[in-house]
Design goal:
heterodimer, A: 92 residues, alpha+beta, three-stranded antiparallel sheet, two-stranded antiparallel ribbon, 3 helices, 41% helix, globular, B: 310 residues, eight-stranded mixed sheet, seven-stranded mixed sheet, 7 helices
C-alpha cells in the first residue's frame, strides 16, 4: 500500500452507527469489529473507495490540525491495521 | 386432540402435554396455531453440512436439528414446526427441558426474533420491565423470584424474546431456581419438581401468561459477582451495550447454522441504542439479595425520574 493505492471496504462487512461509534460484522466469518469516532469517519470516507493521500487531506481539512505528517502516519497505521484484519482491500 | 398453549406471543399446538406453558385462551383457539409440535421418526435425518467436529446441532434438509443422545432428536423448520423423536428410555420432563429450551429457542430464531439469555420482570408499581443478564450462577433467577415475592410480575425467565417493536414477550410460565437459592428466599420447596432428573434446579411455577402483556424493557442489568466489597452499578456506553447484548444471546452457536446472524445485526444494534444497560457488581460471598434489589430498583427509579423531568 502506498499513497495512491485505491482502498475499498470489504464487501462482506455490514456496519451501523451507535452513538457516534461504528460497529461492524463480517457476514462471512461472523467476526465483529468496533471503531471509535475518528476511525468511523475514515470508514465513512472509504464508502466509495479512497487513497491514503485523499483520506489525509480530507481529515486535515475537516479537523484543521497542524502538522499533517503526524496525521498521515496515524492514518496509514490505521489503514494497515484494517487491511490486516480484512476490513478493507486494496484495488489495483 | 393436541394440547393448546401460548408462549412468547405464539399459539402452540403440541402432541403431548407441556405443563410449563400456559393454556391458550378460547379466542386464540379459533385461529390456526403458529407453532406445531409433533412426534415423528427422525431416524433418517442427516446434517446437510457434516462438520469435522461432532456437534449436537446443525442445518438439515428441512431446517435445523438438535440431537441430544439418550433424550431426543429434534427437527425445527420454518419457525413453525418441531418434530421430536424420543429415545426409548428418556423421561418426559427431560425431553421437555430441551424442547422448551434449545429447540424452542431455535424456532424463535428462525422466526427472526432476537432471543437473549435473560429474564424480564415488571417490578411492582412499574409498567416497564427490567432485564437481568449474566453468566450462569450470577443470580438472575434469584433476583427475578425475589422481586416476584415483592409483587413483581416475571415476564420470562432464562429465555427472553424481544419483538420487532422492542418489547419483551411473556415466555414460559416457570422460573428455574437452584435449591440453595430457593432456601435463601424461604420458598417451601416440598412438592416443587426439579426441571429434570439430575439437574439441581427447581421449577417454580409462575402466573398464567395470559394475564401479561408484552412490555418494553427500560433497563438491563449485567450481574457480575466480584471481589469488591460493595454493590455498584455502572452504566455502559453504546459499544459496551452492543457487546453485552451480543454476548448474552441465547445459544449463539445456533445462529450460523440457522443462517440468521446477519438478520440479527440491526435489531441488536437498535436495542443497543435504546436500552440503558448497567453493570452491577456484587460481592461474590454472601449474596445480599435485598441490597441487590434495592440497587436495581433505585437505578430504575432514577431512569423513570429522568423520563418525567425531561
Amino acid at each position: 500500500m502506498d499513497d495512491t493505492t485505491l482502498l475499498r471496504r470489504n464487501a462482506s462487512l455490514i456496519s451501523t452507527e451507535l452513538d457516534g461509534d461504528t460497529v461492524m460484522m463480517d457476514v462471512e466469518s461472523g467476526a465483529y469489529f468496533a471503531l471509535n469516532g475518528t476511525a468511523g469517519v475514515i470508514w465513512q470516507a472509504l464508502e466509495d473507495g479512497a487513497t491514503l493521500e485523499k483520506l489525509v487531506s480530507e481529515l486535515n481539512a475537516r479537523f484543521e490540525v497542524a502538522g499533517g505528517d503526524d496525521i498521515a502516519a496515524d492514518v496509514e497505521r490505521f489503514l494497515r491495521d484494517m487491511l490486516e484484519n480484512g476490513l478493507i482491500e486494496t484495488q489495483a | 386432540m393436541p394440547w393448546d398453549y401460548s408462549a412468547f406471543g405464539l399459539r402452540v399446538e403440541c402432541a403431548v402435554p407441556l405443563p410449563e406453558l400456559s393454556a391458550a385462551g378460547h379466542k386464540a383457539r379459533e385461529s390456526a396455531p403458529d407453532v406445531e409440535i409433533i412426534d415423528g421418526d427422525l431416524a433418517g435425518m442427516e446434517p446437510t453440512k457434516p462438520c469435522a467436529e461432532a456437534r449436537y446441532f446443525g442445518a438439515c434438509a428441512r431446517g435445523f436439528f438438535i440431537d441430544i443422545p439418550e433424550v431426543a432428536r429434534f427437527e425445527i423448520s420454518c419457525g413453525a414446526k418441531i418434530i421430536f423423536w424420543r429415545s426409548p428410555a428418556a423421561l418426559d420432563e427431560t425431553i421437555r427441558l430441551y424442547l422448551l429450551g434449545s429447540a424452542f429457542g431455535a424456532l424463535l430464531m428462525q422466526r427472526g426474533c432476537l432471543v437473549l439469555h435473560a429474564n424480564a420482570v415488571i417490578p411492582k408499581g412499574h409498567r416497564a420491565a427490567i432485564m437481568c443478564v449474566g453468566p450462569s450462577g450470577s443470580g438472575k433467577s434469584t433476583t427475578a423470584v425475589a422481586l416476584a415475592q415483592r409483587g413483581a410480575a416475571i415476564l420470562t425467565d432464562d429465555v427472553c424474546v424481544i419483538d420487532k417493536q422492542g418489547r419483551a414477550l411473556p415466555g414460559i410460565a416457570r422460573a428455574k431456581l437452584c435449591e440453595d437459592a430457593a432456601h435463601a428466599l424461604a420458598i417451601n420447596v416440598s412438592g416443587l419438581p426439579h426441571v429434570a432428573r439430575n439437574i439441581p434446579k427447581l421449577s417454580i411455577p409462575l402466573a398464567s401468561r395470559g394475564a401479561l402483556a408484552p412490555a418494553p424493557p427500560r433497563a438491563a442489568f449485567v450481574l457480575e459477582p466480584s471481589d469488591g466489597a460493595r454493590i455498584t452499578a455502572t452504566e455502559l456506553t453504546a459499544i459496551e451495550r452492543f457487546t453485552a447484548l451480543r454476548s448474552n444471546l441465547y445459544r449463539p452457536e445456533f445462529l450460523g447454522p440457522l443462517g440468521v446472524e446477519e438478520a440479527l445485526f440491526e435489531p441488536l444494534a437498535e436495542l443497543s441504542r435504546t436500552l440503558r444497560i448497567f453493570r452491577v457488581t456484587r460481592p461474590r460471598e454472601g449474596f445480599d439479595i435485598e441490597g441487590l434489589m434495592k440497587c436495581l430498583l433505585a437505578t430504575l427509579a432514577e431512569l423513570e425520574h429522568e423520563v418525567t423531568t425531561t
